[in-house]
Design a protein that fits this description.
Blueprint lengths: L1 H25 L8 E5 L2 E8 L1 H4 L7 E2 L3 E9 L8 H12 L2 E8 L2 E10 L4 E8 L3 E10 L5 E10 L2 H25 L1 H15 L1
Parallel strand pairs: 3-9
Antiparallel strand pairs: 1-2, 2-4, 4-7, 5-6, 5-8, 8-9
Helix pairs in contact: 1-4, 1-5, 4-5
Length: 201
């Protein structure tokens, strides 16, 4: 009886964590995945990584922790054979441009990458975020004639601490409620025991 109850709690915990991971972007979305940034006629893929905290998880507008953060901009070319000429034209145009990146908190610039050739179509910068809050990522492309294109992406940094705390509180309440139902309801307990017995077999 006790062994079955322990297994039941463990399965409940696993189900909860899976649901929480999906809600936090594990199933796809802007949180837990990269996002697109339109700039002129071009589209850049933006992803933020914090390898020391979340491994290879990608984030967009909500970055969970503070500290070293990799900001990656990757040119997204057109797909499909019908767009081949347009794709090649845009590829040539953007790879002849320079790209400039700046990260601001309010009026203060906390990071600036000066203009540099965008020949590879991808650029990565490492920004050390020291304070939680709202930031603005500014991207500027400039073609050889001097014409510029700008785009701005608001992001939130350090959102993970309160989220994790709320997640733990909810997890404790969830497991306690389910376990109470298991102990107090004979019908529910029988169904759970039957499912666990099948799983065991």
């Amino acid at each position: 009886m006790l062994t079955i109850a322990i297994r039941f709690v463990a399965i409940s915990w696993a189900i909860f964590l899976s649901a929480a991971a999906f809600a936090d972007g594990g199933g796809g979305g802007t949180v837990g995945g990269g996002c697109r940034l339109a700039i002129g006629d071009f589209t850049l893929m933006f992803s933020a990584y914090q390898p020391q905290l979340t491994g290879d998880a990608r984030f967009c507008t909500e970055i969970p922790g503070l500290g070293s953060t990799h900001l990656v901009f990757d040119y997204e070319s057109l797909e499909g054979s019908t767009a081949q000429k347009a794709k090649l034209d845009l590829d040539r145009q953007i790879k002849a441009m320079t790209i400039e990146i700046e990260v601001k908190k309010g009026d203060q610039s906390i990071f600036k990458r000066p203009p540099e050739p965008f020949k590879t179509g991808i650029v990565e910068s490492v920004v050390n975020f020291q304070e939680a809050g709202d930031y603005l990522v500014e991207v500027k492309l400039a073609d050889p004639s001097g014409k510029t294109f700008e785009s701005h992406l608001p992001i939130k940094v350090g959102v993970g601490e309160s989220s994790l705390r709320n997640l733990i509180i909810f997890a404790v309440i969830f497991i306690a409620a389910v376990y109470f139902l298991y102990l107090s309801s004979a019908g529910f307990r029988e169904k759970v025991n039957a499912v666990l017995t099948k799983i065991k077999k």
